[in-house]
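User: Structure with magnesium ion, tokens only please.
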Amino acid sequence: MSDETVVAIKGLTKRFGEKTVVDAVDLEVRRGEIVGFLGPNGSGKTTTIRMICGLLRPDAGEGTALGFDIRTQSERIKREVGYMTQRFSFYEDLTIRENLDFVARLYALPDRRRAVDATLDRLGLKTRQNQLAGALSGGWKQRLALAASIMHAPKVLLLDEPTAGVDPLARREFWDEIHALAEDGLTVLVSTHYMDEAERCHRIVYIAYGRIVARGTVGEVIAQSGLSTYVVTGREVAAVARAVRGAPGVAQVALFGSALHVVGTDDGLLGAAVDAAAEGRDVTTARGETSLEDVFIRLMDVARADDPSNRPEAAA
Amino acid sequence: MSAAHARRTAADFVSASRIAALMVKEMIQMRRDRLTFAMIIGVPILQLVLFGYAINMDPKRLPTLVVAADNGPVVRTVLAGMQASGYFDVRVGLATEREVEAAMAAGTVTYAITFPPGFERDFVRGDRPQLLVEADATDPAATSNALGALQPILESAFRPELVGPLAARAPSALPVDLVVQRRYNPEGITSHNIVPGLLGTILTMTTILMTALALTRERERGTLENLMAMPATPLEIMIGKVVPYIGLGFVQVAVILVCARLLFAVPMAGSFPLLLAATLLFIAANVTLGYTFSTVARTQMQAMQMTFFWFLPSILLSGFMFPFRGMPVWAQWVGEVFPLTHYLRIVRAIMLKGSGLADLAPQIWPLAAFWLAVGTLALLRYRRTLD
Ligand SMILES: Nc1ncnc2c1ncn2[C@@H]1O[C@H](COP(=O)(O)OP(=O)(O)O)[C@@H](O)[C@H]1O
Ligand SMILES: [Mg+2]
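Assistant:
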């Protein structure tokens, strides 16, 4: 990782009709970094990524990718960037090899055969090279898409929910591959909503309702949230859950197996509420670690309350 | 930003490698799409055979109404000859002109033959009496053969009658004044006229439709986003999409021309290379139009509808369906817009009349202008972004 900024956008805004889908987003990605782009469905991740690679025109804001202006030099950007779309978008009636061959020709790669062979080898696609893409399972399709987006040796990789609908083993292998690529100097911006994937990123950016509401390393984001967590265990956790829900200082109550996580912003109030609910019941309470998921749920709640379109008067 | 970044080279706009990528991909997809491919080959053959044999099919025993004022030996001989030829199913009746008119309009008779009063007498006198044959030519292909047979029938019918003093007239013209009226279709399109017409209409339908679907299919399947994220320019995408369909069009041309030759012996009076060159221009104009449709349409369904909206007036106003000169003037002006109109004239002129390039220039430049116009429109319409 270096200090060289590869993607830099400022105040990026996109409206569809009346709706502001991406609202003044700032984002910086440095060389060799893996940045996780997180947020609930419809929060504007895909739209932001599409603006970076020139597929959508921003309504406001500016940005560069690899030093090229995203508004005027998208043709240049396209050559140096690999983009893996959210939905599988290679040709299902072409084989793996034919798809890669197509991409290699489009990028005018020298020694096309070798480039395709090397890519097939690298992603373990050799034995399936003559299968039609449409006949592949989700994990293999994703591998083909990754192969196709890295074949022209891009400097930046934009991955839009690359592991949606892929089994855990394939996901893990995928992430190992991403890390290997980053070690070779590739810069990666990857959108996801899997928490475990967020933890494999060097840095995360959290977007909700088109606005970035948190950014930093996983530890930083948890710390910034100012949330405290208590874990309640024992026979009567269900009763405790009912009692604390809605109490002052309590933001989230969630059961994980037999453990109850109670999360709040004000440590003092939260402690008092948990103690009051546990009073006289067969449970033990302890301070716990706040998880990234707790933070994200909190961020979503706050963002929803802030979003003008979700206010009651706006709805009326 | 360095100067190298700002400078653009020719390869930024058109790259052979990128066009090849798109063309190869399109051709593989075409080959895998068996059903469509079978249609491309099958439809022209089917249409040719259907239309073609409707033309050459020699309809026999066509209902024929005879209006005869007198019923002498000459009239009887003529009628017997007609009946014997097999083409006419002669029903002698004492019909009036009004009844003939009504039967024709209702389509219950195909021919009406009128022997005027005094026919027998005039014939014997050698006055070449009129013999009026009215034919329902709404389906000219069906009636023309029978009409063609009429002359020899009459000749052989009259020959035995011409004995004695009348024999002197034998080598001369027919002893009657045969008046043939092709009703409803003054131009009397012939079989050789229709096969070239089919060439134009089949090409119009398939080439426009195939290309109109080409880009909308990518949009519907989501592959367009990927394509747009890769470094292909709108011009390259257009060329890469359109050229394979030009090739496909020529496969159809080959099928149609071979069939036209083998099955119907359609002549080739003019230059074959000229025909191919004109066909290339015509197909190019059509596939480019199809491509323009696909830049406008959001879905394959819309692309298909647009194709049909274009196809219908094309066949109606181009002179394929109705004689061009028979249309109202405004319709003729509209008809001039369609490539099919010009192509039909070109093909008929080359194949049947043997016309050369100079004769055809007035039909060629409208095709070229049309092509340029839709090509420009397609490039302007092409969306570089997903907005
Ligand atoms: N082409 C479009 N036209 C109109 N609305 C759109 C379009 N694309 C996305 N949206 C809307 O913009 C919002 C953000 O979408 P998206 O960027 O796909 O979110 P995410 O990728 O985070 O799930 C959604 O509400 C979506 O419905
Ligand atoms: Mg998305």
